[in-house]
What we know:
Number of domains of chain A: 2
Oligomer: homodimer
CATH architecture of the largest domain in chain A: 3-Layer(aba) Sandwich
Number of helices of chain A: 9
Strand content of chain A: 15-25%
Number of strands of chain A: 10
Shape of chain A: elongated
Strand order of the largest sheet of chain A: 3-2-4-1-5
Order of helices and strands of chain A: EHEHEHHEHEHEHEHEEHE
Radius of gyration of chain A: 20 Å
Structural class of chain A: alpha/beta
CATH topology of the largest domain in chain A: Cobalt-precorrin-4 Transmethylase, domain 1
CATH superfamily of the largest domain in chain A: Tetrapyrrole methylase, N-terminal domain
Amino acid sequence: MSDAPTTGRLVLVPNALDLGTEPSPLTDVLSHAAIARAARLNHWVVENAKTARALLKRVDALVPLAQPLQSLQITELPRPRKGEAGSQIPASAWRELLAPALAGQDLGLLSDAGLPAVADPGAALVQAAHEAGVTVEPLAGASSLTLALAASGLNGQRFAFEGYLPQSASERAQRVRELEQRSRREGQTQLVIETAYRNQALLEALVHLLQPDTRLSVACGLTSPGGFCLTRRIADWRRHPLPTMPDRLPAVFLWLAS
Amino acid sequence: MSDAPTTGRLVLVPNALDLGTEPSPLTDVLSHAAIARAARLNHWVVENAKTARALLKRVDALVPLAQPLQSLQITELPRPRKGEAGSQIPASAWRELLAPALAGQDLGLLSDAGLPAVADPGAALVQAAHEAGVTVEPLAGASSLTLALAASGLNGQRFAFEGYLPQSASERAQRVRELEQRSRREGQTQLVIETAYRNQALLEALVHLLQPDTRLSVACGLTSPGGFCLTRRIADWRRHPLPTMPDRLPAVFLWLAS
């Protein structure tokens, strides 16, 4: 009774990794604790409301939601307009999104796949939470990046995630060569992703651009049926017909120069 | 009956993240699928046999092991002698470790915490599996690196894991400054780890070495009771007494220059 009102937490809720494919059982990817914690959260900030509701329906089938789905407060993360960086969104917008936590309610953060704020939006909200004194509680969950890295057999003691490569062919070629040199010099595995419908074009470009001795790995749909991870030296990639990459499934491309 | 004998898989089994602390319920971190899959594996290659048996006992309490713990085949990964790189271990040694998979049995790979082969040994065995045509099956699981990154609020769209910094003070200072410059230039969050008993010394060194505007985050024991993630600008770290870092718990140190 005499307790002062306490601040809620910002709970980082992992999503499954089956975006773009048939949903696998949620228990293939999420811990029971994460599923049960998600079922108790009534306030959400999410990358995409439709994807979030789809996840919450799958949660509800395993652990009934504390409140009906319709009555949950689900707000989408603001999207920077094209060509604007995320930092263009005023700090006050992030603070407003934290309102439930500042009023004492736990607030879930969820992206479309894997961990929020890792190769996904949400970091600015986490930053705002730190600045506002809101405790950040990350629930254990998988990221497609570290899963691909483990499966690749490439160096997991030193690696870098670059995000997306430039779209212009000449800028892309230059960046790939820079990253290949850094990989050789520092023994650092390089990871990039691409919009799914450009997966095939990126694979072709990398097989063309990288040095024969460099090992290139492609991971796609890991944890889903039909998921795969292939690792070969570029010389071997060139000797075989390239596999047809799924054009709706996110993939991770990794290389390590020797 | 007419099926040809098939090759077993190399199954990458995630471990919990509570090394060095009181064990949390396994269901806090691992999916039911990972726990059930681990219970069915009779052949293991592991970072440390004692740690592996401890995990398998926790698995057994949730999903009974297919064979008694005593009858499982558990082999430790070869350790390079001091000063030798992992590549000094002959390729034939990795091939021998794959023998159960080549004979048709699934083979588990397990490290002391989190994902095998990510900031942990095992990549050479995964590489050998790719070369021998053994399918690699990564089970979804958490890595302390991506969990720390999500919790930090630093840039998760571009980041690099450097492993351990040099131990010599002057080499360390030089490397920290190089990585800070790269962070500023590329917007790349830098992640490093340290042997637990040197956590405090590394925190002090980073607060001393980095620029006042750089944001430094320290994550320790995430997913365990008492775990924390603190993110502050260096100027703010300098204004407050530094927290006492646990000297037996692994920590992740992250920074992003602005």
